TrEMBL record, chain A:
The gene is RSPH9. The keyword Electron transport does not apply. GO terms for cellular component: kinocilium; radial spoke. Keywords: Cell projection, Cilium, Cilium biogenesis/degradation, Cytoplasm, Cytoskeleton, Flagellum. Belongs to the flagellar radial spoke RSP9 family. The keyword Oxidoreductase does not apply. InterPro entries: Radial_spoke, RSP9. It is found in: Cell projection, Kinocilium; Cytoplasm, Cytoskeleton, Flagellum axoneme. One of its GO terms (biological process) is cilium movement involved in cell motility. It comes from the Eukaryota. This is Radial spoke head protein 9 homolog. Its main location: other. Pfam families: Radial_spoke (PF04712).
Automatic annotation (TrEMBL), chain B:
It is found in: Cytoplasm, Cytoskeleton, Cilium axoneme. Residues 502-513 have a biased composition (Low complexity). The gene is RSPH4A. One of its GO terms (biological process) is cilium movement involved in cell motility. GO terms for cellular component: radial spoke. It comes from Myripristis murdjan (pinecone soldierfish). It comes from the Eukaryota. This is Radial spoke head 6 homolog A.
Length: 278, 529
C-alpha cells in the first residue's frame, strides 16, 4: 500500500489481526520520506512484515517510473534503517526452494543448509556413486525470494487502477474505484505481475478486454478455485480480499473511491495444504 | 372626426392584432408546454447578457441552448443499486449498539460493575494490543466492545471477555468467552442434549432388536464401536466456559454447543478453513462429528488450552478465595492477591515467567482422564495424535498431562520451531513498553502483559502450524469382496430354443417316469440349470 495512505489504510486491513504500533507508524512516516529521496523513487509502498522467530522483517518497496518493472525492495528491523535487497534470480529461487524450510529466524545472515544427494550410474552401484551437494542459502536470499514469490502470486490491484501506455505501466489517475457490485466479483481484481495466462485466452474472450487496462491476469483464473476470500468489512463499506495461498496477504479497496492497496503480514510461508483445506 | 375616428379604429385594430399575436405567442405548445413569447424573452435577455459577436449567425444555436437549459432532471429513471440494502441493514443493526438501554438496566449494570466486572474493558485491551502490533482497528474494537455490552446485558453472565476472532472464507467469527452466574446454567440445552443422546441410544437399541428379530440371513458384523469417551460436564475441563460468536458486531450472538472429546480428537486430524456459516457441514477425512459450529468450538478449546497464558504468580493454587481483582473462583486456581507484577524486561527474557492457566487437553480429548473400563482410549491414541504427541512429549502417559500453571519454558519444540516468540513493544521507550508473547504453534495467538494487566487474544484462521506439509490421513483399506461363487454369479437367460428343448426333455422324462413308476429319479433337478 502506498506510504502516503498509511493514515487510514492500515486500519482498513486490520481485520486480519495485525497492525502497526503507533511508534512504527510514526517511524515509517519519517523514514520513508528520506528513503524516497535517497533512492529517487517515484513512490514508496509499504509492502508488509514477515514474522521471524527472533525478530520481524519490515519490508517496503520503492517504485520507479514503470510501476510493474521498476521495483526495489528494502527491509528493516526497526522501520528506520533500511537495507536494499538484490533482485531475485532464477538460480536463487531454485536454491531457496530446495534449502529453506520452516519459519524465518529473524537473522539475515542465518544459513539454511540442505544436503542433496545426486545419483550417478546404474542402480546396482548406486551406493558408491552417490554425490553429496550441500546447498547453503542465507536468510536474506530467502527473504528476496519470498517477496518475489508473493508479488508474483498474490499481489492484487483492482481492474483499471493501472494503465499501460507506450509500454509503461503507470497509475491511472482517472481511476475512480469499482462500483459496489463490481467489487463483489473476483474477475475485477488483477494480479499485479507479468501476465501468465492472458495470452492463452481465446479470441472470443479477448474481444471484451481493453488492452490498455486488461493487460494483467484476473484473480478468477487462479487455481485452485477458491484460493481467495472476498468480503466486505468495516460496516460492509470496504472490499477486503485475503489470499488463502499466502495466509497473511490482505488487500483492501474502497468501492467508488480510488483507494486500494495490499499488505503482507505473515510468517512468509506458503500454504501448501490449501487443496486439503477448502 | 372621421379621420380621427378611422385613425383610432386603426390604432385599435393594430392593438387588437398585436394582442392576438401576443395571445398566439403565449399559447403553450402541446408537446413541450413552452410558449414562444417566453422563449423569445429568455433568448433576448440572454442576448443582452452575453452580447455575442455576430449574433445573427449564432441565434439558432442560442435558441436551442436556451431551450435545452429549461430541461430539469427531476428524478433518475434508474433505481438505486441493491447493494445499499446490505450496507444499510447492517448499519441499522449496528445502530442499536449505540442506544442506551433502559434506566433500570443501567442501574443494574452499575451495581454489577461495582461487584464483579462482567464486561471487560475492551478499549483498554485494544490499546495494549495496538502496542503489541495486534488488533482489529480502533473502530472495530469499539463496535465489538458495544456488542459485548449487549451480550452481557442480555445474558446472565458472571464474566465475559473477548476471546478473539477467527477468519473464515465467507465471513469471520468474533468470539466471546463467558461464564454463567452461579445457578444460572442454561438447563434447557443440557437437557435437550441428554435427551438427544438418549434418543440416539434408543434408536440404536431398536435397530439391534429389529435385527435380532429377523430370521437373520446376513452375517453379523464383528465390529464393535470403541467406547465413546464421555463429554466433560459444563464448567469443567474443556467446557469450562461457554462461547458466543457473531459474524459482525451488532448481529446476534450465537451460543456454541459444548464440545465432546470425539470432536476434539477429530479436529486434531483435519485441517480445514472455516467458511463463516455455522451450519456448514465439514467434509473431511476422518469424518468430523458435527458441523462447523462444533468444529469451531473444538478449535477454540484447543487454542485456549495451548495458548492461554498468564504471568507467573498471577494465579495460585489454594483453598482460600482471594478476590481482589476477580472474584470468580476458578476450577483449581485463584487470583493471587499479593501478585506485584513482573518487570517487563524479565517477561521478555525468559519464558519461565509465563504459565499456562488453561488445562492441557489429553489425547483422549478431555482435560481429566476417564478410564473407559476395557480399552482406555486406545482408539484416539493410535490414530490421531502423532501431532499432539510430538508437541507435548512431556506428556508421556495418556492419563496425566502437564499440570495447570506449568511454565512455558517446558513447552516442547514442534517441527524444530520454538513454540513461543517474545517481543518488547518498544525499544525506544522501553520503560513503558509491554511484553508481548506470540505463539508459533497457533499463528495468531498473542498475549501481552503490562504490570498486573495481561490478556490473551487469538486472531487468525484457527489453524495450527503444521510444519512443512500436512499429510491427510489415508482412508482405510477397502473391505474384501464377497468371495465369488456360482450362487452369486449372473448367468445368461436361456433362449426360447433352449427352453423348448428343456421342456421336451422334461416331457420325455415324465413319460419315462410314468413308465417306470416304481423308481424315483433324482437327476431331474440337476438338469434344471
Amino acid at each position: 500500500m502506498d506510504s502516503n495512505s498509511l493514515y487510514y489504510s492500515l486500519d482498513l486491513v486490520a481485520g486480519s489481526g495485525y497492525t502497526f504500533t503507533a511508534e512504527q507508524r510514526a517511524a515509517l512516516q519519517t523514514s520513508l520520506i528520506i528513503l524516497r529521496q535517497n533512492y529517487n523513487f517515484n513512490r514508496v509502498m509499504l509492502w508488509g512484515k514477515i514474522f521471524g522467530i527472533n525478530a520481524d522483517y519490515f519490508i517496503v518497496q520503492g517504485r520507479g517510473e514503470d510501476e510493474l518493472k521498476d521495483k526495489k525492495n528494502l527491509y528493516s528491523f526497526n522501520c528506520v534503517d533500511w537495507f536494499l535487497l538484490p533482485p531475485a534470480t532464477d538460480a536463487m529461487i531454485e536454491e531457496v526452494s530446495k534449502a529453506a524450510q520452516g519459519r524465518f529466524m529473524g537473522d539475515p545472515s542465518f544459513k539454511y543448509e540442505h544436503v542433496e544427494t545426486h545419483r550417478q550410474g546404474g542402480e546396482a552401484e548406486a551406493a558408491e556413486e552417490e554425490d553429496e551437494v550441500t546447498i547453503k542459502v542465507s536468510e536474506e536470499e530467502r527473504l528476496v525470494v519470498t517477496i518475489h514469490q508473493i508479488d508474483r502470486e498474490v499481489s492484487v490491484v483492482p481492474r483499471g487502477a493501472f494503465i499501460k501506455s507506450h509500454g509503461l505501466i503507470q497509475t491511472n489517475r482517472s481511476f475512480n474505484g469499482l462500483s459496489h457490485s463490481e467489487a463483489g466479483k473476483l474477475h475485477n481484481f488483477l494480479h499485479f505481475t507479468e501476465p501468465k495466462n492472458l495470452k492463452k485466452k481465446s479470441i472470443l474472450e479477448m474481444a471484451y478486454l481493453d488492452p490498455s487496462i486488461d493487460f494483467l491476469d484476473p484473480l478468477s483464473d487462479d487455481t485452485p478455485k477458491g484460493s481467495w476470500s472476498l468480503q466486505f468489512e468495516c460496516g460492509s463499506n470496504v472490499c477486503v480480499l485475503r489470499s488463502l495461498l499466502w495466509l497473511g496477504l490482505t488487500f483492501y479497496h474502497v468501492p467508488m473511491a480510488p483507494q486500494h492497496g495490499y499488505i503482507y503480514m505473515g510468517d512468509g510461508t506458503k500454504n501448501l495444504d490449501l487443496p486439503f483445506m477448502l | 372626426m372621421e379621420a380621427r375616428g378611422g385613425k383610432q379604429d386603426m390604432e385599435q385594430q393594430k392593438l387588437h392584432t398585436a394582442a392576438c399575436l401576443k395571445a398566439f405567442m403565449l399559447t403553450n405548445s402541446t408537446k413541450t408546454n413552452l410558449n414562444l413569447y417566453d422563449h423569445l424573452t429568455r433568448l433576448l435577455m440572454r442576448l443582452m447578457d452575453e452580447r455575442p459577436p455576430d449574433a445573427v449567425d449564432v441565434i439558432e444555436d442560442m435558441s436551442r441552448d436556451v431551450k435545452r437549459a429549461l430541461f430539469v432532471e427531476r428524478q433518475s429513471t434508474l433505481r438505486a443499486a441493491p447493494h445499499t440494502a446490505a450496507t444499510q441493514r447492517l448499519a441499522e443493526r449496528q445502530r442499536l449498539l449505540f442506544t442506551r438501554g433502559e434506566e433500570g438496566d443501567q442501574e443494574d449494570e452499575l451495581v454489577a460493575t461495582a461487584d464483579t466486572p462482567a464486561l471487560p474493558n475492551v478499549s483498554e485491551v485494544g490499546f495494549y494490543l495496538e502496542q503489541a502490533g495486534v488488533g482489529l482497528g480502533r473502530e472495530e474494537m469499539q463496535r465489538i466492545f458495544l456488542a459485548l455490552k449487549q451480550l452481557v446485558e442480555s445474558q446472565p453472565l458472571q464474566h465475559c471477555r473477548l476471546w478473539g476472532k477467527i477468519l473464515g472464507i465467507e465471513s469471520n467469527y468474533v468470539i466471546a468467552e463467558a461464564e454463567y452466574r452461579e445457578g444460572e446454567e442454561e438447563e434447557e440445552q443440557s437437557t435437550e442434549e441428554t435427551a438427544e443422546e438418549e434418543r440416539e441410544a434408543e434408536t440404536r437399541d431398536d435397530e439391534e432388536e429389529s435385527e435380532a428379530k429377523e430370521s437373520n440371513p446376513l452375517p453379523q458384523s464383528t465390529y464393535k464401536p470403541p467406547p465413546v469417551v464421555p463429554k466433560e460436564a459444563n464448567r469443567t475441563g474443556v467446557n469450562k466456559f461457554v462461547y458466543y460468536v457473531c459474524k459482525e458486531p451488532g448481529l446476534p450472538w450465537v451460543k456454541l454447543p459444548s464440545v465432546t472429546p470425539a470432536q476434539i480428537t477429530a479436529a486434531r486430524q483435519i485441517r480445514k478453513f472455516f467458511t463463516g456459516r455455522l451450519d456448514a457441514p465439514i467434509a473431511s477425512y476422518p469424518p468430523f462429528p458435527g458441523n462447523e459450529a462444533n468444529y469451531l468450538r473444538a478449535q477454540i478449546a484447543r487454542i485456549s488450552a495451548g495458548t492461554h497464558v498468564s504471568p507467573q504468580g498471577f494465579y495460585q493454587f489454594g483453598e482460600e478465595e482471594g478476590d481482589e481483582e476477580e472474584a470468580i473462583p476458578r476450577d483449581s486456581y485463584e487470583v493471587n492477591p499479593d501478585f506485584e507484577g513482573i518487570p517487563v524486561p524479565e517477561m521478555v527474557e525468559s519464558l519461565s515467567t509465563w504459565v499456562h492457566h488453561v488445562q492441557h487437553i489429553l489425547q483422549q480429548g478431555r482435560c481429566t482422564w476417564v478410564n473407559l473400563a476395557a480399552k482406555p482410549e486406545e482408539e484416539s491414541y493410535e490414530e490421531g495424535d502423532a501431532e499432539e504427541k510430538e508437541e507435548e512429549p512431556d506428556e508421556p502417559e495418556p492419563e496425566v498431562g502437564p499440570s495447570l500453571l506449568t511454565p512455558l519454558s517446558e513447552d516442547a519444540e514442534l517441527f524444530h520451531t520454538p513454540p513461543w516468540s517474545t517481543r518488547i513493544s518498544s525499544t525506544l521507550t522501553s520503560q513503558y513498553a509491554v511484553a508481548v508473547l506470540r505463539s508459533n504453534l497457533w499463528p495468531g495467538a498473542h498475549a501481552y502483559v503490562c504490570g498486573k494487566k495481561f490478556e490473551n487474544i487469538y486472531i487468525g484462521w484457527g489453524l495450527k502450524f503444521a510444519g512443512d506439509s500436512y499429510n491427510p490421513s489415508v482412508p482405510p483399506v477397502p473391505q474384501k469382496e464377497y468371495p465369488s461363487g456360482p450362487e452369486i454369479t449372473e448367468a445368461l437367460d436361456p433362449t426360447l430354443e433352449e427352453e423348448e428343448m428343456l421342456n421336451a426333455a422334461l416331457e420325455e422324462q415324465q413319460a419315462a417316469q410314468e413308465e417306470l413308476d416304481d423308481m424315483d429319479e433324482e437327476e431331474e433337478e440337476g438338469d434344471d440349470d
